[in-house]
Every structure is written in structure tokens, then in C-alpha cells.
Amino acid sequence: MKFKTVKEIARLYTNYFQEKGHTIVPSSSLIPKGDPTLLFTTAGMVQFKPLFTGAVELPYTKAASIQKCVRTTDLEVVGKTERHCTFFEMLGNFSFGDYFKKEAIEYALDFSLNHLEIPKDKIWVTIYLDDDEAKNIWMDAGIPEERIVRLGKKDNFWGPAGDSGACGPCSELYLDRGPEKGGPTCGNNPNCKPGCDCDRYLEYWNLVFNQFNQTVSGELLPLKQTGIDTGSGLERVAMLLQEVDSVYDTDELKTIIQKIVTLSGFQYNESTKQSFRVITDHSRSVFFALGDGIYPDRTGRGYVIRRLIRRASLFARKLGIHEPFLYKLVGTLKDLYSVRYPELKDKTNDIESILKKEEELFLHTLEVGLEELESLLTQLTANKQTLVTGKEGFRLYSTYGFPREMTKELVEDRGFSFDDTGFEEELEKDRDLSRASWKGKKIQYLTGLTASPELKTEFLGYTETKAQGKVLYLFVDGKLVKSAKQGEEVVIVLDKTPFYAEGGGQIGDTGYFKKDGFQFQVQDTQKENDTYLHLGMVLKGNITIGDVVDAEIQTERRQNLANHHSGTHLLNGALRRILGTHVTQKGSIVSADYLRFDFSHPKALSPEEIIQIESDVNEAVSANIPVKTEVLDLNQAKESGALSMFDEKYGSLVRVVSMGEKSKEFCGGTHVTNTKEIGFFAIVKEGSPGAGNRRIEAICGESVVSYFLHQFQTLAAKIETHNLSAKETFGDLKEFGISKDVPSPEDLQSIFLKDGKTAVARLRKLREGLETELEEKVSALFKAKKKLEQQNFQMNPELVDSLLQKAHKYTKGKVVTEVFPSVDAKALKDLADSLKAKEPEILCLFGTTEGESSTLVFMCNKVLNDRGIHCGEMLKESLVMLDGKGGGRPDMAQGGGKKPESVAKSLEFALSLAKTKLS
Length: 919
What we know:
By secondary structure, the chain is of the alpha+beta class. The protein contains 26 helices and 35 strands. The strands form eight sheets. Strands 1, 2, 3, 4, 5, 6, 7, 8 and 9 form a nine-stranded mixed sheet that branches. β1, α2 and β2 form a beta-alpha-beta unit.
């Protein structure tokens, strides 16, 4: 095949279809116009959806385009594979009631043969199962029947793009790359053909024959007119014509990679290719997104773009790059893509500026933490451990600001596992313990200091996030010192600070102090009288009284604190409106991750009341209410109707925070400037801290998105496990399968973007419906499996022989281990007796599970007792993993416990004990 550049392929495509009477339509924005069901434009046909359905008057009856697209469903594998990208360009030709199958097939074959110059004998095609019409057209066009493959709905029925729109059967063109690409499995397999998972046949063009309009409910209705929607990945076509194995080796992406080589000083090779590919792909996605006005944010599309920037920055660090870097690629990206997308030419300065600022924000937070993570992984490797515990992960989060998701991806990329459950437990413990710990130290550190003008710290944090301050006092181990060095835990008092000190329920700010050669991490900020105490650790260098430092808070954390504090005010107002004015605040905690609000109320809240309260707050959030702060005389503030804490002491002047008609309270905390900044509000827990009072825990902003993402990911894993279990047992799902799909991360982002104030209620209802269905299906499957397993166990004469074949063989005997779900202990003993009768020198280690309980049965003949095997002693040690009890004789022992998920590990442990005796 003849080598063709990406630009050449694009030019050939538009010229060809223009000659065929198609209107060449410019790419639409990555923000889908008029389609709230999509987070990004994901296909060429998105902008044409109304034309297919007949919803608008047709400006043309056939068109062609080169569409910029973003998909992030497989984000974690980008860089690891040869062809995954988040950004790609889609070639497409479309017909709206003009031509149909015959012309679409003829155009595709003609362009492939005579313009792309693909040899005819290398082209294979697939068609939908019953589409004989397409088959005949292909054969008439010259493709022999033996190179036409029928595939099912999963592969050859396409659409719609989003929840609704045009869809229909399709036919795909494949290029045969030769048997050498089939690998060891398919290289010489004469039956290998399109549809196989090997790399021999690669699809490069999809022809969709639109015949239906799918409604949001899933109903297929005939289109007013049939249509054609084709898609051909520009990068994929270039990869095939340039005869390379990866889209990252095509000419345009190689240009970006070469720029990274120049800037980084690293070569693109096997050891660095993942970093190069991630940076190359993510920089394109971010470049085009920023060009379309999608800016880094805490929710929606902006959240995805921020995640891409941060992921690319992390991979840049693997190349030794420790400063903002991605923005330096913008010039190269402009040169490559402004020919096809001229609107980008005038936006590059803004793109560079936004991207550099976002990188600086991220790198500033993580600079020291990455070194700590590397040290941790090195230590684990030396100790031959593979698990990053929840405690270690939480330390990276609390001390160095590492988000859990980022830590998890980093450690898993290095072959380690991450303890999600342990992290949650540490987070829960920290909520109650950390503040108490610091408050105890606060008293210790202030010993000998009294309120005085010299000790007053000027607070600048209502308007500033960074400032210069002079060091007035240093405390180490509770003692006043003149200087402090690296590694010491220190309290620093400045003359002025942007750091908010804990008060009014809001926890203190965190961040950094810096000067030449010195860095101090502020882990908490407290206050005594008018003295602000910055508690933390010296990470680099030394600090001396009198030094001037640059103090900068962690702005994202402060924003999250503001979100949750303002959310607390709206919650208080909603409670009084819905439950009654008897509700009074009894206490609160405002953190960056959640809020906790205690209030007077005599009984638990009903599910309906919780939904009402949640909806009331989300309506206020969506209402774009300006947040007003003013300092008033105490009596004037009370007369204004502002709420105050009954037992709180106030001075003659108080600060009042108002949110329209929704809330007005005394408050010295930091807040959003408009309720819209809060994003979303969700209640995650309701309970009682004591008689007559209730407690609500809730989350705001980005935390709500993350909360539901985690909830649905966990639910999806449970459903997948259940469905797999049903398939393994019965061959297909039958009545045990879950009928609804769990929303993907992109679906969730789309729901939050589209539904606004009702998104939380909608997702809560969807999750509860799926959980109820799963519970019912699991119960039904459990009963069916139990019945089937009991039947198989009792009626299987070959079981003894199969277990003997699987037995572990040692010098002094054999050991057989097996877990039997839902089998009673008597049946296990009978089975062990049968095995002992057939093989005297065998130890049987059996386990069974049912519901939340588990049972172990260990048995052997006396001949193994003489060789050191004691079933009772082995059982007691093995039951520790099950929190169980039991015992028995040397030749037989039985016990039970909990933790059915640990039965297999218990048997593995027992096997290791037996191995030491029998080897």
C-alpha cells in the first residue's frame, strides 16, 4: 500500500465526497448542541441527529465531515494499548433520505480501492445477521462471498449516539494485515476472520444503514426517511496505510511525540512509550476542549478535562519533568490542526494560559508527595509486600493531598494493589480524631503566651489566597525556639496570613509556606484569641524567627470548604422550612470532604423528608443566588432575622452571611460568592447523636459526583459478579440477569450536566431500583444454585476421582482442598470418607459457604497422624481468618465462622501448614 499522510487522507476524503455531490460540513463543537444526553461529541453523526429524525428542515440531503470527538470511557488504558485514544477525528459521509445501502457500499469500496489504494484482495466486510440485501450489493461490487462475514447485534447494529436518535444495522470494512498479525493463536488458523480478537483483521470503516429512531425509552420507530451514517477513524486509516502497529506511530502523532522528545530530553522507546502516548493523547483532548470553551472545573465536562490534565502531568513527571509542560505543546498542536480547524488559530494564547495555570495548581500540591509515594513503594518492594494499605493511602491523602483515585492508579500501574476499604475506614476515623489531636496540641503550644497586640495575626483570607508574612514565633515540641529544621513538626505564628483558622464548625486551612530553599506544609490552622497557629512539618530547609515567607493556601480545598459551609447554611434553612422552626443548630463540622450538621428534632427523618430537604437545597444551588456578607452591630444583626447559635458568644460586631430568602446566619467562615458554585448537594447519612437531636452528613460539589461514581462502580462490580455467576451455573442468564444497565462515568456526568437540581434525586432512585433488583436476583440465584449444587453433589459418582486427580502430591502424602458452596458438613464428611477409603494417605481440607456463614471440615487417616498431621490443631489456626471457632481430633475436625469470602484463603493457609509436615 502507498504511504499517505493524515492530511492527505483527510483531503482525499473531503474532495471525493464533494465530487459526489456532498456538502462538506465543518466539525461541530465538542459540546453537543441541543443534546443533553451526551457529555461530549462522540461521533460524526451527532450534529446531524435532527436531520435523520426529520425534526428540522433539511439544508442538504447528503453531507460529509471530519469531526473532532472525545471519548473517555477507557481512560485508564490509554497509553497502554496501541490504539486507544480519548481524542480522535472521525471521517463521515451522510445521507438524509437521499441514497441508501447500494450507493454507500459502492462509495466506500471505490474510495478504498481507487483513492486510498488498498488492494482489493485485502478487504473483508461484515454485515448484520439477516442483511442479505447488503451481502448481494457487496458481491455485485466484487467482494467474494467467502470474504463476507455475518455478525450479530453487538458488532453490526449501531446507535444511537446518546439515549435516543437514528440507528440501524451496519456493515464494516476490514483490512487483512496478514497471518503474521494473527499471533501464535491465529497466525495459521484458516478459520480466522473479522470478529476474531486477534490483530490480523482491523476494521477501518463502519457503514450504518439508519432505518429506526430509538426513543429515550428504548422503543424503535421507523425513520421518516432512511439514511446513511458512516464513520471512519482518521488515525486508524492512517495507521493502516502507513503500515505501523500503533496510531501513535502515524505522522501527526509522531510530530507531537518528537516535540515531547525535544522538550523532555527523553527518547520514545519501549520503557517510555506509555508516558509519551498519554501526554500526546491527553494534550490533544485538552487543546481541542479548551478551544471549544470547556475549561477545567469541579463537575461535568470540566471535571473530565481537569482529570486529563492531571493524568498527563503525572506521566510527564515520569520523564523527569517537574514544571508545567503541557502548555508548551500548544504551538505544535496549533500547527498540526489549525489547517482542518482554523478557528483554533486565534485561541492558542488563551489555551496556553489556562493550561499553564491549571498545571501550576496541580504540581504545586503534589511536588513533595510523589517523592513520599516512591519511598513507600520502594519500602514495600524491599519487604516483598504488594498492598498499599488504607492507612498508607490515607497518609498520602491527609499529609500530601493525594486524591484516592490518583494514588490507586499510580500504585496499580506499578503492580501494587490498593486497599479501598481501609482508606474509607481511615477517613472515617480521622473525622473525629484529627481535630481533637490538634486542639490538644494547641493548648500545649500556647503555654506562656497571652493575648496582646504583638501576638495579633492579621487575617487576609476572606479576599486573598496567598500573602507574605513575617515569622513571629516558632514552637517545636511545645517549646519556643529560634529556628526549626527539615523533618520537625512545628507551629508557626505569622504577622498576617490568608489561612483560615478552625472556627464556627469549619476546619482550618492547609497549604504551604515557601522561601528560597525552604518549604513548610501547613497541615492545620488553629486560633487562640487573635493569634493564628499554623501547625505542620518542615519539608525542606530551615526557618528562623524574623524570616518572611510566601504563604499560600490549598485553593481547591478552600473551595471545597466553602462549598460545604455554604451548603450547611442552605441545609439549615431547608430543615426549618420542611420540618419546622423548632429546628435549631446544635453543632456542625465543615470539612473539605463532607459536612455534618446536628439539630434539634424529636424523631428520625423519613425517606420522603430526606428527599424533600435534599431537593430544597439543590433548588437553591441551581437558583444562582448571590451570597452576601456584611459586618453589622450585634443588635442590628439580630433585628435583621439572622440565625445565631444559642450558646455562642459574640462580640459587638458580627459577620452576617445571606443567601437570598434561603438563608441568613451569623458566620465567620468562608463561603461561595454564588450558590451555583456549590454544584450539587447530597445527603449520605442521617442518624442521632443523642436524645432529642438528629445528625445529617452530606456532601457538596465534586464530592457528589465522586460519591455516585463510586456507588455505581461498586454496584456494577456486584452485578457483573452476579451475572457471571449466573452464566457459569446455568449457561445463560435466564431469569437471573439484571435487566437495566448501570450508568457509565460519562452517563453520570451527562446526568449531572443535564438534570441540574434533579440529578441527585434521579440517580438516587436509579441506584435504589438497581440495588433492589440485584437483591431479588441474588436471592433467587442463591436458592437455585443451592438446589443445583446439592443435586450435583449427591448424584456425582465421578467427584471422588476428579478430586484425587487434583490432589497436591508431597513425599509423605497427598492433600485435596475444595470449597463447596451450600453443602452441609455431613456430606463433606461422607465425601472425605470415600476419598480416604480409596487413598489412605490423603488429607481432606474442605470448606463450604452459605449466606454469611462458613464451615471447614478437615479429615485424614491415622497414617498421616503418625507423620505429624493434627486436623484439630490445623483447623484452629485456619479458623482465625473466618473469626470462627471449632476443633476436633487428630483425624477429624470441624468448625465454623463468618467471612465466607475468606474460606479459600483459609484452605490455602491450611495447605501451607500441611505442606511443611508432608514434604
